[in-house]
Backbone:
């Protein structure tokens, strides 16, 4: 029996490995063959898996509903690494994952994406002579100043199996792959999760607080295609407060009377709340349906945030800050939005899948198919360009998008077939 160890380093990785785990379990059950001489119906499955998380079991980004929403088990093991230093993360994950493999041997190690913890686990696996598989291989920014670009190069160079999501990443992986490595364009595994979860999406209980001219107006429930979703997480953007303030002002002014809803986590929320130049930023009101959120998450202030002591001279809706949403509620929010503004490649991919206009606050994306085929537009960090594109979004003047090749929800099946044939 083949032992497969799946290593994840952050919350978004769970979204990608959930369908892979279901596929491994499903294939192991269907392919299970009776043991020799056994008449009781027991069998030797072709593979078993273990799920290892680099972080702690009380990580506040892993809300209690996440695993139930994804219908996946919690990790078997938590390495307990908690640091903001990329080099510390790398060294600690290497030491702890190596110790883990001493007690829980594996034949195949699967790592996901491009984190420091991903690279650390890849190095350990390769030094032990294990088969190393990289899920979402071949992505490149071609900017060596980015720590993640270094991670990508190292992981791909070490990997025996390179599972890519699209034609461009396949081209990169094939061109750079080491001797003995194999590249497989299996498709975008995020689509497996989106298709699986789509029937179960839940509308979040978000009420938009009235604008300044209508302050007496009662909070209104969100309506489909009548709001914009904003997500921000990129460290470089959060570190440049002046630039971020200009971008947020451009968004709210160009959006006009269209509400901009921002479900921000941790540092991103602190930074945005600390800005004093964003017109009328305030939290929304949420009802008791949000009691399912993990108590360790940030909670909404009982009083509206007053990030701008001076009233805006523009007739625009305030930026509405809300607490992070459970996975299925965030999925509903983005799927039914008028548009999305983000710095996340995963969110941009979801927008293309749902046919929702998307603006990426960056000059490049590792997921080029969201731009060339999908609904994504890059604006860099140019406030004027951002305002122009938001205006087009509000007017409904957006390009038509389509689904890229192999966004069919069968990526995990292809991966498991390859693994079982090793």
Residues:
């Amino acid at each position: 029996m083949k032992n497969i160890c799946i290593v994840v380093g952050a919350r978004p990785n769970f979204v990608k490995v959930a369908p892979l785990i279901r596929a491994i379990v499903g294939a192991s059950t269907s392919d299970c063959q009776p043991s020799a001489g056994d008449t009781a119906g027991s069998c030797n499955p072709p593979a078993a898996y273990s799920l290892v998380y680099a972080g702690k079991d009380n990580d506040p980004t892993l809300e209690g509903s996440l695993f139930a929403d994804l219908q996946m088990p919690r990790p078997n093991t938590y390495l307990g690494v908690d640091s903001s230093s990329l080099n510390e993360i790398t060294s600690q994950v290497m030491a702890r994952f190596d110790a883990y493999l001493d007690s829980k041997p594996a034949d195949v190690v699967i790592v996901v994406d491009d984190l420091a913890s991903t690279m650390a686990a890849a190095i350990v696996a390769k030094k032990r002579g294990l088969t190393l598989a990289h899920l979402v291989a071949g992505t490149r920014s071609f900017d060596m100043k980015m720590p993640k670009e270094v991670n990508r190069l190292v992981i791909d160079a070490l990997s025996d199996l390179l599972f890519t999501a699209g034609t461009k990443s396949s081209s990169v992986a094939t061109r750079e792959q080491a001797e003995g490595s194999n590249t497989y364009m299996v498709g975008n595994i995020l689509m497996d999760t989106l298709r699986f979860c789509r029937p179960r999406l839940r509308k979040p209980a978000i009420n938009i607080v009235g604008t300044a001219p209508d302050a007496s107006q009662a909070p209104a429930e969100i309506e489909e295609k009548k709001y914009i979703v904003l997500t921000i997480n990129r460290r470089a953007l959060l570190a440049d407060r002046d630039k971020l303030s200009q971008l947020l002002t451009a968004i709210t002014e160009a959006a006009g009377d269209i509400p901009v809803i921002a479900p921000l986590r941790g540092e991103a929320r602190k930074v945005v709340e600390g800005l004093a130049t964003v017109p009328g930023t305030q939290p929304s009101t949420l009802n008791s349906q949000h009691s399912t959120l993990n108590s360790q998450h940030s909670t909404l202030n009982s009083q509206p945030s007053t990030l701008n002591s001076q009233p805006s001279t523009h007739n625009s809706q305030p930026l509405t800050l809300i607490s992070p949403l459970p996975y299925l509620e965030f999925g509903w929010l983005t799927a039914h939005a008028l548009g999305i503004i983000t710095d996340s490649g995963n969110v941009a991919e979801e927008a293309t899948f749902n046919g929702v206009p998307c603006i990426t606050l960056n000059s490049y994306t590792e997921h080029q198919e969201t731009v060339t085929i999908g609904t994504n537009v890059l604006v860099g960090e140019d406030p004027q360009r951002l305002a122009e594109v938001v205006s087009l979004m509000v007017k409904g003047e957006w390009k038509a998008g389509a689904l890229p090749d192999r966004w069919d929800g069968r990526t995990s099946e292809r991966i498991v077939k390859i693994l079982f044939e090793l």
